[in-house]
Amino acid sequence: MSIESGTTEVSREPGGDQERAGFDEIHILWISEGMSCDGDTVSMTAAGQPSIEDVVLGLIPGLPKVNLYNKVLSPSLGGEDFLAPYRAAARGELTPFILVIEGSIPNQNIIEGDGYWTSFGNDPDTGEPLTLNWWIDRLAPKAWAVVTAGTCAAYGGIHAMAGNPTGSMGLSDYLGRDFRSRGGLPVVNVPGCPIQPENFMETLIWVLHHAAGSAPPPPLDHMLRPQWLFGRTVHEGCDRAAYYEQADFARDYNSPKCQVKVGCWGPVVNCNVPKRGWMAGLGGCPNVGGICIGCTMPGFPDTFMPFMDEPAGGSLSSILIKPYGAFIRRLRGITNIAVNREPKWHHNKPELTSGYAPYWRPSPARPQRGTR
Ligand code: SF4
Ligand code: SF4
């Protein structure tokens, strides 16, 4: 069996061969045949603000008409019918399109002889499987924008762990950091294991508005993540952060307190899930008792393992905050008792003791105007 192995054939010219924005109609070619569990597609179907249905049905003002090709949401029965737009795009007959990659990219070059790691359809002439790498090599240079769905596609994720046999990597490692799409964009990364549904949809909406010519390019950080979504840490949005500040730490997973001593990496992880919630605003890892294991981060999972151990930095910071936190917690406890009382003038006695004393009413306790 001979398989055409994946070699990067994309333009290395940053910003070269660009297409203007201002499209009335655009295609989204979503390939989930990277090394993955398809969890990002499943997660995306839970989005509500907006939903993928809102986008496809044209319910969002200002967006181009969107034709989505995704195997889970496809009305086709699969096979050649489903593959037709992908084959047309590879021939350069379907433009413009946004390429969405889900799953990490294996290294076909390390395979000696026949074989492949993952494939998407077959070559109609030979009947041989077409590798994911084959598709990326042909579609990425023609795509108006390239977006990753999930940490595996963004940074390699679980399949790219130390000791893996596939040489898996994220898409920008495969294409090169200087890759630019036909729209002049680098790879747009939406990490998460899986993606938070609205994080992905918001990013897609921004890219679609940009394609329509009504928005600037999405602002990305140095790891090519949307800045407005990944610019804060989990800790900065966590419901339990007040416990941390008071050095009140959970010792097991049945506690509502800060979980840093039972393995939470939230203080150093870029993710908005505690603020945004998971579905319909509900959930969000540490808010509902799950330690943050850094699933949006480039080093996930190796950097954050073993998951249930206290992070080294967490150990230091929790020791340092202890004297301040314990002292402040005690003072706040005393003040809390003091402020949990009603004012003494709230009573049903015959006299008013609230201190009410209008200046026009003579009072023996107060000198009258003009008497001094
Ligand atoms: S549970 Fe994690 S994210 Fe929340 S306050 Fe504690 S360390 Fe920070
Ligand atoms: S809070 Fe942590 S574990 Fe949860 S989604 Fe964000 S990065 Fe992943």
General description of the model:
The chain is an alpha/beta fold. It folds into two domains: about 25-230, NADH:ubiquinone oxidoreductase-like, 20kDa subunit (Rossmann fold); about 230-340, Cytochrome-c3 hydrogenase, C-terminal domain (Cytochrome-c3 Hydrogenase, Chain A, domain 2), CATH 4.10.480. It contains eleven helices and seven strands. The chain has helices spanning about 40-45, 50-55, 80-90, 130-140, 150-155, 170-175, 195-210, 225-230, 240-245, 275, 310-340; strands spanning about 25-30, 65-70, 95-100, 120, 130, 145-150, 190. The strands form two sheets. A five-stranded parallel sheet has the order 2-1-3-6-7, with helices on both faces. It has a two-stranded antiparallel sheet with strand order 4-5. A hairpin with a 6-residue loop joins β4 (about 120) and β5. One iron/sulfur cluster (SF4) binds near residues 235, 258, 266 and 292.
Give the tags.
Cytochrome-c3_hydrogenase_C, 2 domains, binds iron/sulfur cluster, disordered N terminus, five-stranded parallel β-sheet, 11 helices, NiFe_Hase_small_N_sf, signal, single chain, Rossmann fold, two-stranded antiparallel sheet
Query: Helical region count?
Result: 11
Mean of residue pLDDT values:
91
**Helix content range:** 25-40%
CATH class of the largest domain: Alpha Beta
The coarse overall form would be elongated
List the secondary-structure elements in sequence, H or E.
EHHEHEEEHEHHEHHHHH
Uncertain runs with pLDDT below 50, 5 residues or more? Answer: 1-16
- Subunit organisation of the chains: single chain
Give the strand content.
5-15%
Number of strands: 7
Cα gyration radius (Å): 28 Å
| Largest sheet geometry | 5 strands, parallel
CATH architecture of the largest domain: 3-Layer(aba) Sandwich
Spell out the CATH superfamily of the largest domain: NADH:ubiquinone oxidoreductase-like, 20kDa subunit
Domain NADH:ubiquinone oxidoreductase-like 20kDa subunit: 37-205
Keywords: 4Fe-4S, Iron, Iron-sulfur, Metal-binding, Oxidoreductase, Signal
InterPro entries: Cytochrome-c3_hydrogenase_C, NADH_UbQ_OxRdtase-like_20kDa, NiFe-Hase_small_C_sf, NiFe_Hase_small_N_sf, NiFe_hydrogenase_ssu
Protein name: Hydrogenase expression protein HypE
